Automatic annotation (TrEMBL):
Keywords: Glycosyltransferase, Transferase. Gene3D superfamilies: Glycogen Phosphorylase B (3.40.50.2000). This is 7-deoxyloganetic acid glucosyltransferase. Its EC number is 2.4.1.323.
Length: 484
């Protein structure tokens, strides 16, 4: 009898791209579904899974959810293959090229299920995988939906890459052309410049493989049964409405980290323990340092998990921070700077000023850092998770986008939502110094006001009756219904 009941519990396969931001948000969704009593299989690449095991307690943490499984698949690359900076897209190409037969075999053979719930009844696939997960799901008759981890504004723009070519707006004609306004992305006509288009558009001709891949992959989401976006009505409602022209059924569930925290708090009468999904060892000593800093006096500096720096840019940021005279907490990942070395002499004035009012950490618990009372600003690469985490914490931003969706996110942060400043395409110590002082002092009140208002909307959206909350209920119902 008990076994019969188990078999009617749906098993959802969640398959993210092998990158910190994708894994973070899709693991939050996985936990939300597990909290609702669904059985979940989380499929990571071996490379990512090994790093998660090394740096976190995820296996113990998720063992409390009945039927929760971690499974792994190869990304097709050698273990020591570089996976950051401009080599990151090779991971995407490799997974898209090689994974389809392996995924099919894992589904057919029951490797993605447990003894109680052996069959996958629903798939939530990272939309960046395009058609191959949909092909497999269709062949095996399993309902599948796509999860896009980028902002709605970015995802909408992807649908219009072909129009940009047809209208002659792309390719971009050199540096002097970067400030030209773009007309072919609806709703963004007045403010989106060439430089704000997703980084994939910065190519000299339209046959570039990466540029061509984006609309192909994006169009595949139209074949999925529905689309999940990590955003919320109050932030991107009108843009989400425009996407329904291509993908009529959309669940906005974000901000997922806040959504999970809210549901965990409900389940435990208010107490939540911050949990890490980090791919690096987390240095918590920065929180002790923050404890001793004045209210909103620190600018937190972090460029996510993929950005790499030239030594020149690193020095410009460093000088800018030091010359601003503001306090700063800076994440220096072990693989942050490109090229060999580390033996260069750092000027003594930088070392002394950093000792006086700065703190450098290898990798930090970012959600906790942003929520700390001492943090008053965020110098960020504008990755979508970081942007949402900053919004929820009510922390204004300086954006220094590195690639991909970050270019358009930073334009929306500065021009549309007014949460801060955009430092795109510039890395100059004087500009850094000025922007840090504008954010932390001169224009602080304005930015804080708009960010605080949006933080409130974000929290409402994940509270009972809010849009993201209700959408999650709908998704869970749909998953249960299809398993019957
Ligand atoms: N992150 C973290 N500690 C750090 C740096 C980053 O926990 O020191 C997390 C951050 O909270 C976010 C994710 O890593 O959830 C980065 O995702 P994002 O989309 O912002 O950027 P990506 O790394 O994908 O470029």
């Amino acid at each position: 009898m008990e076994n019969q009941e188990q078999q009617t519990i749906p098993r959802v396969l969640i398959f993210p791209l092998a990158a910190q931001g994708h894994v973070n948000s899709m693991l939050k969704l996985a936990e939300l579904l597990a909290l609702a009593g669904l059985h979940v299989t989380f499929l990571n690449t071996d490379h990512i899974h090994n790093r998660l095991i090394r740096h976190t307690d995820i296996q113990t943490r998720f063992s409390k959810y009945p039927g929760f499984l971690f499974r792994t698949i190869s990304d097709g690359l050698e273990e020591d293959h570089p996976r950051t900076g401009d080599r990151f897209m090779e991971v995407v190409y490799s997974l898209n090229d090689k994974t389809k037969p392996i995924l099919r075999e894992m589904l057919v053979s029951g490797k993605l299920g447990s003894a109680d719930t052996p069959l996958v009844t629903y798939i939530i696939s990272d939309g960046i995988f395009g058609g191959f997960t949909i092909d497999v799901a269709e062949e095996l008759g399993i309902p599948i939906i796509h999860f896009r981890t980028v902002a709605a504004c970015c995802f909408l723009s992807y649908f219009f890459f072909p129009d940009l070519i047809e209208s002659g707006e792309l390719p971009i004609r050199g540096k002097e052309d970067m400030d030209r306004l773009i007309k072919s992305v609806p709703g963004m006509e007045g403010f989106l410049r060439c430089r704000d288009l997703p980084g994939f558009c910065r190519v000299s001709d339209a046959t570039d493989p990466c540029f061509r891949m984006i609309p192909q992959v994006t169009n595949q989401s139209r074949r999925a049964r529905a689309l999940i976006l990590n955003t919320f009505e109050g932030l991107e409602g009108p843009i989400v409405s425009r996407i329904t022209k291509f993908c009529p059924k959309i669940y906005t569930l974000g901000p997922l980290h806040a959504h999970l925290n809210a549901r965990l708090a409900n389940n435990t009468n208010g107490s939540t323990s911050q949990s890490s999904n980090c791919l690096y060892d987390v240095d918590r000593s920065c929180l002790t340092w923050l404890d001793s800093q004045p209210l909103k006096s620190v600018i937190y500096v972090s460029f996510g998990s993929i950005t790499v720096f030239t030594k020149h840019d690193l020095m410009e940021i460093w000088y800018g921070l030091v010359n601003s005279k503001q306090r700063f907490l800076w994440v220096i990942r072990p693989d942050l700077v490109e090229g060999e070395g580390g033996d260069d002499m750092v000027p003594v004035e930088l070392v002394e000023a950093t000792r006086e009012r700065g703190y450098m950490a290898g990798y930090v618990p970012q959600e906790e850092v942003l929520a700390h009372r001492a943090v008053g600003g965020f110098l960020t690469h504008s990755g979508w998770n970081s942007t949402l985490e900053s919004i929820v914490a009510g922390v204004p931003m300086i954006c220094w986008p590195y690639f991909a969706d970050q270019n358009i996110n930073s334009r929306f942060v500065s021009e549309v939502w007014k949460f801060g400043l955009d430092m795109k395409d510039v890395c100059d110590r004087k500009v850094v110094e000025k922007m840090v002082n504008d954010l932390m002092v001169e224009r602080r009140e304005d930015f804080e006001k708009s960010t605080a208002e949006m933080a409130k909307l974000a929290k409402n959206s994940v509270s009972e009756g809010g849009s993201s909350y209700s959408n999650l209920e709908r998704l869970i119902e749909d998953i249960r219904f299809t398993a019957k």
